[in-house]
Design goal:
A hairpin with a 2-residue loop joins strand 3 and strand 4. The chain is 38% helix and 23% strand. Helix 3 packs parallel to helix 5 and helix 6 packs across helix 7. With 266 residues, the chain is an alpha/beta fold. It is globular and about 55 Å long. The longest helix is centred in the N-terminal third of the chain and has 15 residues.
Length: 266
């Protein structure tokens, strides 16, 4: 696995009060991923990328990881999860929570971690007695978002607690599903990367440059149906032909939203 990771890890160029934390994080990341830990010196990220012939550079910055590619930078940020959790606290609904049918104590397998926003909302919805396991096929994305969920500070207690409860695995969804027992979780969720992005940003561009852009297969959905005992849910564009192709006949979501959720009741 490690010989296919074209990346290095380093720290920020200038010393800060996080210097020791950055050094420890860089060393730990290099060991975990099996990639070179490079002293930063005065080199720019672009110079390091060219010198080592890599596509991406992980940078330990303020005690957290940032992934830098030619397309942009990816770092952990709760994004819209903060507002969604706040709405749930106020008693308002969330389309994903409703689609998955989440309640306290349920177990969720999120097969597409991405930025981690959905996993945080799922974790809040199932509470301290529930579980959320999130898979990410790219080891660099898994490292950045997994590190953020484990160590970043939440905006409030509920978000902080929800972040810490998410368990992240670097794994291919189909391969992972094949190893799971029948009915071993309540719900399985997929949010495949849209072939045409809804919006552009430096973070999303960096994510897309490394994300798995393959469409879901019928075998993957069949395995998800075997593993889940309540629901399988897929997020896609409104009107996407993927829903019909993969057998999702129930479509839910916001009336004016550009996205929708396909739901399979089991």
């Amino acid at each position: 696995m490690t010989d296919r990771i074209r990346a290095i890890v380093t720290t920020v160029r200038r010393g800060t009060r996080y210097t020791e934390a950055n050094r420890i994080l860089a060393a730990h990341t290099a060991k975990t991923l099996g990639i070179p830990n490079v002293l930063r010196g005065n080199d720019s990220i672009e110079e390091l990328r060219e010198r080592y012939g890599v596509e991406a550079v992980l940078v330990a910055r303020r005690g957290l990881l940032t992934l830098v590619t030619a397309e942009g930078e990816l770092f952990f940020h709760p994004g819209m999860a903060h507002l969604r959790i706040k709405n749930l606290l106020l008693g308002h609904g969330d389309h994903l929570v409703a689609a998955l049918g989440l309640t306290e104590g349920m177990s969720v397998l999120d097969c597409t971690l991405g930025t981690g926003a959905d996993a945080m909302v799922e974790s809040f919805a199932v509470g301290g007695t529930g579980t959320v396991t999130a898979l990410e096929s790219n080891p660099l994305i898994a490292a950045v978002i997994g590190d953020g969920l484990a160590h970043a500070t939440g905006d409030n207690y509920e978000m902080h607690a929800a972040m810490r409860r998410v368990t992240v695995h670097h794994a291919d969804a189909l391969r992972y599903l094949r190893t799971q027992a029948d009915g071993s979780c309540d719900a399985v969720y997929f949010d495949p990367m849209f072939r045409r992005p809804l919006h552009e940003s430096a973070g999303m561009n960096a994510l897309r440059s490394l994300a798995d852009l393959r469409a879901l297969t019928e075998e993957t959905i069949a395995e998800a149906r075997r593993v889940a005992n309540k629901r399988v849910v897929m997020k896609e564009r409104q009107g996407s032909a993927e829903f019909e192709r993969l057998g999702f006949s129930e479509i839910v979501g916001g009336r004016y939203s550009r996205i929708a959720y396909g739901v399979m009741e089991l």
